[in-house]
Amino acid sequence: MKVAVVGASGYTGLELLRILLRHPEFEVAAVTSEQRAGRSVGEVFPALRGRLDLVFEAVDPAALAGRVELAFTALPHAASARAVTALREAGVRVVDLSADFRLHSRDTYETWYGPHAAPERLGEAVYGLPELHREALRGASLIAAPGCYPTSALLPLAPLLRAGLVETRGIHVDSKSGVSGAGRTLADGYLFAELDGNCHAYKPGYAHRHAPEIEQEASEVAGSEVRVTFVPHLLPTTRGIATSVYVRPRTGDVEAARRALASAYAGEPFVRVLPEGETPTLQAVRGSNFCDVALFADARNDTWILLSTLDNLCKGASGQAVQCANLACALPETAGLLDTSCLP
Questions:
Q1: 2-124: which CATH number, 3.40.50.720, 3.90.1150.10, 3.30.1360.120, 3.40.50.1220?
Q2: Residue 232 contacts by C-beta under 8 Å, 6 or more apart in sequence?
Q3: pLDDT at 306 over 80
Protein backbone atom coordinates (compact mmCIF):
# COMPACT_ATOMS: atom_id res chain seq x y z
CA MET A 1 0.00 0.00 0.00
CA LYS A 2 1.43 3.37 -1.03
CA VAL A 3 1.56 5.99 1.73
CA ALA A 4 2.61 9.61 2.11
CA VAL A 5 4.17 11.39 5.06
CA VAL A 6 2.98 14.98 5.04
CA GLY A 7 5.37 17.06 7.12
CA ALA A 8 8.13 14.48 6.94
CA SER A 9 11.05 16.63 8.08
CA GLY A 10 9.95 17.16 11.68
CA TYR A 11 10.83 14.75 14.46
CA THR A 12 7.56 12.80 14.25
CA GLY A 13 7.80 12.74 10.45
CA LEU A 14 11.32 11.36 10.61
CA GLU A 15 10.26 8.74 13.13
CA LEU A 16 7.46 7.74 10.75
CA LEU A 17 9.98 7.28 7.96
CA ARG A 18 12.21 5.17 10.20
CA ILE A 19 9.30 2.87 11.03
CA LEU A 20 7.73 2.78 7.57
CA LEU A 21 11.01 1.81 5.91
CA ARG A 22 10.84 -1.54 7.72
CA HIS A 23 7.08 -2.00 7.34
CA PRO A 24 6.20 -5.09 5.30
CA GLU A 25 3.07 -3.63 3.67
CA PHE A 26 3.44 0.17 3.52
CA GLU A 27 5.56 1.77 0.80
CA VAL A 28 6.52 5.42 1.25
CA ALA A 29 5.61 7.00 -2.09
CA ALA A 30 5.71 10.70 -1.20
CA VAL A 31 7.20 12.98 1.46
CA THR A 32 6.44 16.64 1.93
CA SER A 33 8.21 19.55 3.60
CA GLU A 34 7.57 23.21 2.90
CA GLN A 35 11.05 24.26 4.05
CA ARG A 36 12.95 21.52 2.24
CA ALA A 37 10.91 21.12 -0.95
CA GLY A 38 13.08 20.18 -3.93
CA ARG A 39 15.83 18.56 -1.87
CA SER A 40 16.37 14.82 -1.61
CA VAL A 41 15.67 13.02 1.64
CA GLY A 42 19.23 11.68 1.82
CA GLU A 43 20.71 15.13 1.31
CA VAL A 44 18.71 16.63 4.17
CA PHE A 45 18.99 13.63 6.48
CA PRO A 46 22.14 11.59 5.79
CA ALA A 47 20.92 8.78 8.05
CA LEU A 48 18.34 8.00 5.35
CA ARG A 49 20.75 8.19 2.41
CA GLY A 50 20.37 5.08 0.29
CA ARG A 51 17.24 4.05 2.17
CA LEU A 52 14.66 6.39 0.65
CA ASP A 53 15.11 7.67 -2.89
CA LEU A 54 12.59 10.50 -2.76
CA VAL A 55 12.58 14.29 -3.00
CA PHE A 56 10.68 16.46 -0.56
CA GLU A 57 7.63 18.09 -2.14
CA ALA A 58 5.60 21.10 -1.13
CA VAL A 59 2.35 20.18 0.59
CA ASP A 60 -0.24 19.65 -2.16
CA PRO A 61 -3.00 17.24 -1.10
CA ALA A 62 -4.54 17.22 -4.57
CA ALA A 63 -1.25 16.07 -6.08
CA LEU A 64 -0.96 13.28 -3.52
CA ALA A 65 -4.50 12.00 -3.88
CA GLY A 66 -3.98 9.88 -6.95
CA ARG A 67 -0.65 8.47 -5.78
CA VAL A 68 -1.33 7.19 -2.28
CA GLU A 69 -4.08 5.40 -0.39
CA LEU A 70 -3.03 6.50 3.07
CA ALA A 71 -1.43 9.66 4.42
CA PHE A 72 0.18 10.40 7.74
CA THR A 73 -0.13 14.13 8.43
CA ALA A 74 2.47 15.55 10.81
CA LEU A 75 1.78 19.26 10.44
CA PRO A 76 1.12 22.01 13.00
CA HIS A 77 -2.47 22.41 14.19
CA ALA A 78 -4.78 24.33 11.83
CA ALA A 79 -2.50 23.62 8.86
CA SER A 80 -3.07 19.92 9.46
CA ALA A 81 -6.87 20.28 9.44
CA ARG A 82 -6.78 21.95 6.03
CA ALA A 83 -4.56 19.24 4.55
CA VAL A 84 -6.65 16.48 6.12
CA THR A 85 -9.84 17.95 4.66
CA ALA A 86 -8.40 18.01 1.15
CA LEU A 87 -7.04 14.47 1.47
CA ARG A 88 -10.29 13.08 2.83
CA GLU A 89 -12.29 14.77 0.07
CA ALA A 90 -10.03 12.98 -2.40
CA GLY A 91 -10.74 9.64 -0.72
CA VAL A 92 -7.38 9.22 1.02
CA ARG A 93 -7.40 7.60 4.45
CA VAL A 94 -5.60 9.80 7.00
CA VAL A 95 -3.82 9.34 10.31
CA ASP A 96 -3.31 12.81 11.74
CA LEU A 97 -0.60 13.43 14.34
CA SER A 98 -1.62 17.00 15.15
CA ALA A 99 -4.12 18.05 17.81
CA ASP A 100 -6.72 19.08 15.25
CA PHE A 101 -9.05 16.09 15.62
CA ARG A 102 -8.27 14.76 19.10
CA LEU A 103 -10.86 16.81 20.97
CA HIS A 104 -14.53 16.02 20.39
CA SER A 105 -15.79 19.49 21.32
CA ARG A 106 -15.26 22.37 18.93
CA ASP A 107 -15.56 24.83 21.82
CA THR A 108 -12.87 23.03 23.80
CA TYR A 109 -10.58 22.90 20.78
CA GLU A 110 -11.00 26.59 20.03
CA THR A 111 -10.37 27.51 23.66
CA TRP A 112 -6.92 25.94 23.44
CA TYR A 113 -5.95 26.21 19.77
CA GLY A 114 -8.06 28.90 18.14
CA PRO A 115 -10.53 28.60 15.24
CA HIS A 116 -10.88 25.11 13.79
CA ALA A 117 -10.37 24.80 10.05
CA ALA A 118 -12.64 21.75 9.64
CA PRO A 119 -15.02 21.42 12.61
CA GLU A 120 -17.43 19.27 10.58
CA ARG A 121 -14.87 16.43 10.67
CA LEU A 122 -14.49 16.31 14.46
CA GLY A 123 -17.19 13.65 14.65
CA GLU A 124 -15.55 11.60 11.90
CA ALA A 125 -12.22 11.15 13.67
CA VAL A 126 -11.46 8.15 15.88
CA TYR A 127 -9.15 8.81 18.82
CA GLY A 128 -6.13 6.67 18.05
CA LEU A 129 -5.37 4.89 21.30
CA PRO A 130 -5.77 1.23 20.28
CA GLU A 131 -5.94 -0.04 23.84
CA LEU A 132 -9.12 2.01 24.34
CA HIS A 133 -10.63 2.22 20.84
CA ARG A 134 -9.43 -0.80 18.90
CA GLU A 135 -12.77 -1.78 17.36
CA ALA A 136 -13.57 1.78 16.26
CA LEU A 137 -10.16 1.99 14.60
CA ARG A 138 -10.78 -1.01 12.36
CA GLY A 139 -11.60 0.42 8.95
CA ALA A 140 -11.47 4.03 10.19
CA SER A 141 -10.93 6.68 7.52
CA LEU A 142 -9.71 9.49 9.80
CA ILE A 143 -7.68 8.80 12.91
CA ALA A 144 -6.47 11.35 15.45
CA ALA A 145 -3.24 10.05 16.93
CA PRO A 146 -3.14 10.95 20.66
CA GLY A 147 -0.72 13.29 22.35
CA CYS A 148 2.31 11.74 24.01
CA TYR A 149 1.48 12.95 27.51
CA PRO A 150 -2.15 11.71 27.36
CA THR A 151 -0.96 8.28 26.18
CA SER A 152 1.44 8.01 29.10
CA ALA A 153 -1.26 9.03 31.60
CA LEU A 154 -4.24 7.12 30.19
CA LEU A 155 -2.63 3.71 29.76
CA PRO A 156 -1.97 3.14 33.48
CA LEU A 157 -5.07 5.05 34.62
CA ALA A 158 -7.85 3.80 32.31
CA PRO A 159 -8.21 0.22 33.67
CA LEU A 160 -8.72 1.48 37.22
CA LEU A 161 -11.25 4.10 36.14
CA ARG A 162 -13.11 1.52 34.07
CA ALA A 163 -13.29 -0.83 37.06
CA GLY A 164 -14.51 1.97 39.33
CA LEU A 165 -11.60 1.41 41.71
CA VAL A 166 -10.45 5.04 42.03
CA GLU A 167 -11.97 8.46 42.60
CA THR A 168 -12.55 10.62 39.53
CA ARG A 169 -11.37 13.81 41.25
CA GLY A 170 -8.07 14.57 42.92
CA ILE A 171 -6.07 12.79 40.21
CA HIS A 172 -2.56 14.21 39.87
CA VAL A 173 -0.49 13.55 36.75
CA ASP A 174 3.21 14.36 36.88
CA SER A 175 5.04 13.84 33.57
CA LYS A 176 8.63 14.36 32.50
CA SER A 177 9.46 14.48 28.80
CA GLY A 178 12.50 14.57 26.59
CA VAL A 179 13.01 17.73 24.58
CA SER A 180 12.06 16.17 21.22
CA GLY A 181 8.44 16.48 22.35
CA ALA A 182 8.68 20.20 21.59
CA GLY A 183 9.75 19.58 17.99
CA ARG A 184 12.35 21.79 16.33
CA THR A 185 11.37 24.80 18.39
CA LEU A 186 13.92 27.63 18.34
CA ALA A 187 13.62 29.04 21.84
CA ASP A 188 16.01 29.73 24.69
CA GLY A 189 14.60 26.95 26.88
CA TYR A 190 15.50 24.32 24.27
CA LEU A 191 19.11 25.36 23.72
CA PHE A 192 21.68 22.79 24.84
CA ALA A 193 23.31 25.23 27.27
CA GLU A 194 19.95 25.93 28.89
CA LEU A 195 18.71 22.33 28.98
CA ASP A 196 21.80 20.28 29.83
CA GLY A 197 21.78 19.36 33.52
CA ASN A 198 18.46 21.13 33.97
CA CYS A 199 14.86 20.07 34.64
CA HIS A 200 11.82 22.25 35.14
CA ALA A 201 8.04 22.22 35.13
CA TYR A 202 6.10 24.24 32.58
CA LYS A 203 2.43 25.14 32.17
CA PRO A 204 1.37 23.45 35.43
CA GLY A 205 -2.26 22.89 36.36
CA TYR A 206 -4.99 23.38 33.76
CA ALA A 207 -2.65 25.35 31.50
CA HIS A 208 -1.25 22.69 29.15
CA ARG A 209 -3.16 21.74 26.01
CA HIS A 210 -2.99 18.04 26.84
CA ALA A 211 -4.97 18.43 30.06
CA PRO A 212 -8.41 18.56 28.36
CA GLU A 213 -7.41 15.63 26.16
CA ILE A 214 -6.56 13.52 29.20
CA GLU A 215 -9.84 14.49 30.87
CA GLN A 216 -11.90 13.77 27.74
CA GLU A 217 -10.66 10.20 27.36
CA ALA A 218 -10.55 9.46 31.08
CA SER A 219 -14.14 10.66 31.47
CA GLU A 220 -15.28 8.45 28.60
CA VAL A 221 -13.67 5.42 30.24
CA ALA A 222 -15.05 6.23 33.70
CA GLY A 223 -18.55 7.05 32.48
CA SER A 224 -18.52 10.30 34.47
CA GLU A 225 -16.53 13.52 34.57
CA VAL A 226 -12.87 13.10 35.47
CA ARG A 227 -10.66 15.99 36.47
CA VAL A 228 -6.89 15.90 36.64
CA THR A 229 -4.14 18.20 37.83
CA PHE A 230 -1.45 17.92 35.17
CA VAL A 231 2.14 19.09 35.59
CA PRO A 232 4.57 18.46 32.70
CA HIS A 233 8.34 18.80 33.05
CA LEU A 234 11.19 19.03 30.57
CA LEU A 235 14.07 16.57 30.97
CA PRO A 236 17.61 17.01 29.63
CA THR A 237 17.23 14.02 27.32
CA THR A 238 16.11 13.62 23.72
CA ARG A 239 13.49 10.87 23.92
CA GLY A 240 11.11 9.46 26.46
CA ILE A 241 8.32 10.29 28.90
CA ALA A 242 8.15 9.14 32.52
CA THR A 243 4.75 9.69 34.10
CA SER A 244 3.50 9.30 37.67
CA VAL A 245 -0.26 9.33 38.31
CA TYR A 246 -1.50 9.69 41.90
CA VAL A 247 -5.05 8.48 42.59
CA ARG A 248 -7.33 7.96 45.59
CA PRO A 249 -8.64 4.39 45.87
CA ARG A 250 -12.33 3.82 46.56
CA THR A 251 -11.35 0.71 48.51
CA GLY A 252 -8.07 -0.39 49.99
CA ASP A 253 -7.96 -3.48 47.80
CA VAL A 254 -4.72 -2.93 45.93
CA GLU A 255 -4.76 -6.51 44.67
CA ALA A 256 -8.00 -5.76 42.82
CA ALA A 257 -6.20 -2.85 41.17
CA ARG A 258 -3.28 -5.07 40.19
CA ARG A 259 -5.70 -7.61 38.72
CA ALA A 260 -7.54 -4.88 36.76
CA LEU A 261 -4.27 -3.62 35.29
CA ALA A 262 -3.02 -7.11 34.45
CA SER A 263 -6.35 -8.15 32.93
CA ALA A 264 -6.64 -5.01 30.80
CA TYR A 265 -3.27 -5.58 29.17
CA ALA A 266 -2.92 -9.35 29.22
CA GLY A 267 -3.37 -9.60 25.45
CA GLU A 268 -1.94 -6.23 24.45
CA PRO A 269 1.15 -6.33 22.23
CA PHE A 270 2.64 -3.01 23.35
CA VAL A 271 1.70 -2.45 27.00
CA ARG A 272 3.82 -4.33 29.52
CA VAL A 273 2.66 -4.53 33.14
CA LEU A 274 5.79 -4.86 35.22
CA PRO A 275 6.20 -7.32 38.09
CA GLU A 276 5.30 -6.01 41.53
CA GLY A 277 8.09 -3.84 42.92
CA GLU A 278 9.69 -3.02 39.54
CA THR A 279 9.60 0.56 38.25
CA PRO A 280 9.52 1.52 34.55
CA THR A 281 12.61 3.07 32.97
CA LEU A 282 13.13 5.21 29.90
CA GLN A 283 15.96 3.02 28.65
CA ALA A 284 13.67 -0.01 28.42
CA VAL A 285 11.31 1.70 25.95
CA ARG A 286 13.53 4.11 24.02
CA GLY A 287 13.14 3.66 20.27
CA SER A 288 10.31 1.14 20.72
CA ASN A 289 6.51 1.15 20.60
CA PHE A 290 6.21 -0.26 24.12
CA CYS A 291 4.71 1.40 27.16
CA ASP A 292 5.72 -0.05 30.53
CA VAL A 293 3.32 0.44 33.47
CA ALA A 294 3.43 -0.36 37.17
CA LEU A 295 1.32 0.17 40.28
CA PHE A 296 2.43 0.92 43.84
CA ALA A 297 0.35 1.45 46.96
CA ASP A 298 1.02 4.12 49.60
CA ALA A 299 -1.37 2.84 52.27
CA ARG A 300 -0.16 5.38 54.81
CA ASN A 301 -1.46 8.22 52.63
CA ASP A 302 -4.39 6.34 51.08
CA THR A 303 -2.89 6.75 47.61
CA TRP A 304 -2.09 4.51 44.67
CA ILE A 305 0.82 5.47 42.45
CA LEU A 306 0.64 4.54 38.77
CA LEU A 307 3.86 4.72 36.77
CA SER A 308 4.54 4.57 33.04
CA THR A 309 7.33 5.14 30.56
CA LEU A 310 7.24 5.35 26.77
CA ASP A 311 9.14 6.87 23.88
CA ASN A 312 7.37 10.13 23.08
CA LEU A 313 8.25 9.88 19.38
CA CYS A 314 7.17 6.24 19.03
CA LYS A 315 4.31 4.99 21.23
CA GLY A 316 3.69 8.66 22.01
CA ALA A 317 3.37 9.65 18.35
CA SER A 318 4.62 7.92 15.19
CA GLY A 319 4.67 4.30 16.32
CA GLN A 320 1.17 4.62 17.67
CA ALA A 321 0.09 6.24 14.38
CA VAL A 322 1.39 3.21 12.47
CA GLN A 323 -0.29 0.87 14.97
CA CYS A 324 -3.58 2.65 14.25
CA ALA A 325 -2.99 2.53 10.49
CA ASN A 326 -2.38 -1.21 10.72
CA LEU A 327 -5.76 -1.64 12.40
CA ALA A 328 -7.52 0.64 9.93
CA CYS A 329 -6.06 -1.26 6.97
CA ALA A 330 -6.78 -4.76 8.38
CA LEU A 331 -3.07 -5.53 8.75
CA PRO A 332 -1.39 -7.23 11.71
CA GLU A 333 -1.38 -4.63 14.47
CA THR A 334 2.30 -5.17 15.20
CA ALA A 335 3.52 -4.84 11.60
CA GLY A 336 6.70 -2.75 11.47
CA LEU A 337 6.65 -2.13 15.20
CA LEU A 338 8.30 -5.01 17.02
CA ASP A 339 11.79 -3.55 17.41
CA THR A 340 13.09 -3.63 20.96
CA SER A 341 14.63 -0.70 22.78
CA CYS A 342 18.10 0.54 21.86
CA LEU A 343 20.49 -0.73 24.55
CA PRO A 344 22.43 0.79 26.13
A1: 3.40.50.720
A2: 149, 175, 176, 177, 201, 202, 203, 204, 208, 210
A3: yes
Element (H, E) at 297: strand 291-298
Do residues 59 and 75 touch, judged by C-beta distance below 8 A? yes
Distance of CA 317 to the CA centre of its chain: 4
pTM over 0.85: yes
pLDDT band at 342 (very low <50, low <70, confident <90, very high): confident
- The Cα 91–Cα 32 span in angstroms is 19
For CATH 3.30.360.10, the residue range(s) in the chain are 149-312
How sure is the predictor about 65, in pLDDT bands with cuts at 50, 70 and 90?
confident
Classify 277 in phi/psi space as left (phi over 0), alpha (psi -120 to 50) or beta.
left
Residues belonging to the active site: 148
**For 149-312, CATH number?**
3.30.360.10
Residue 341's pLDDT band (boundaries 50, 70, 90)? confident
